[in-house]
Amino acid sequence: MAKETKTVFISGASRGIGAGIARRLAAEGFDIWLNYRSSEEKAREVQAEIEGLGRVCRLLPFDVADDTAARKVLEPLLDEHVPFGMVHNAGITRDTLLPLMRTDEWRDVIDVHLNSFFILGRLFSKAMLPKRQGRIISLASISGETGQAGQVNYSAAKAGLIGASKALARELARRNILVNVVSPGLIETEMIDDLPLDKILPMIPMGRVGTVEEVSGVVRFLLSDEASYMTGQVLSVNGGMYM
Asked: Taking each helix axis from N to C terminus, what angle separates 67-80 and 116-128, rounded to the nearest 10 degrees?
């Protein structure tokens, strides 16, 4: 009997860590619902790669911080099919010191990281409940574990994401819906292009930045049968920068 193909929704998956997760999961047999907001060309490139692996990749363009848009796109799809996994990866940065931070720089970061977890988490958990199975994975950050100067908004959003994920894990555990967090440190993406790595690398015990593949591998593990007794956990992928 053929094994049923599982589907995973990934937010913010047109590039960076999200795209890496989509590629990794597709290579290991998952179909993908790939969300993005505006990077259509990049999203189509990832879609083509996934379809080249023989998997299905459905593009879902909408702003994850827009409750109405998310419901309009997702509710009809969830009525037909409930993905096994939801990976909340979408994110932005608006870095500046708090005394200089504009209200919109605070609000936008909180909206995209944290309010969107409420929007997406509510939709997917409600659909997963009758199935009595599912995995919800949030991508946090070392900044949400330690705090980071110049990132009060980002640190608050990621710390909130960790707390919300732990609370949701308690709510859903008896229905076999597992909620966990992957918390990357410095990962080799365009987000670190402008950072002074010569000053930062000595602070990392492993002496290097991480790779997208090292993050996506942890996400893959959390979707596997081997992680079926794990919920409410934060798995840090940071080279020892925070222990």
From this structure: 20
**Quick count: other Cβ atoms within 10 Å of Cβ 239?**
21
**Active-site residue 154, yes or no?**
yes
Q: Is 234 exposed, middle or buried (0-12, 13-18, 19+ CB in 10 A)?
A: middle
Dist CA 219 CA 123 (whole Å): 21
pLDDT digits (tens, 9 = 90+) for 13-69: 999 999 999 999 999 999 999 999 999 999 999 999 999 999 999 999 999 999 999
Which residues face 180 on adjacent strands? 137
Question: Is the CB of residue 138 less than 8 Å from the CB of residue 182?
Answer: yes
- Active-site choice (36, 154, 229, 242): 154
Question: Is the model's pLDDT at 229 over the cut of 80?
Answer: yes
Its pTM stands at 0.95
Angstrom CA distances, 201 to 82, 151, 207, 214, 242, stand at 42, 19, 5, 17, 13
User: What SS3 state is found at 29?
Assistant: coil
**Percent over 90 (pLDDT), the chain:** 92
Give me 4's structure tokens: 């049923």
Residues contacting residue 147 through CB under 8 Å, at least 6 positions apart: 155, 159
Cα→Cα distances 37→12, 49, 81, 89, 214, Å: 7, 19, 22, 12, 25
| CA 152 – CA 173 distance, rounded (Å) | 31
Q: State how far the Cα of 18 lies from the Cα of 33, in Å rounded to an integer.
A: 12
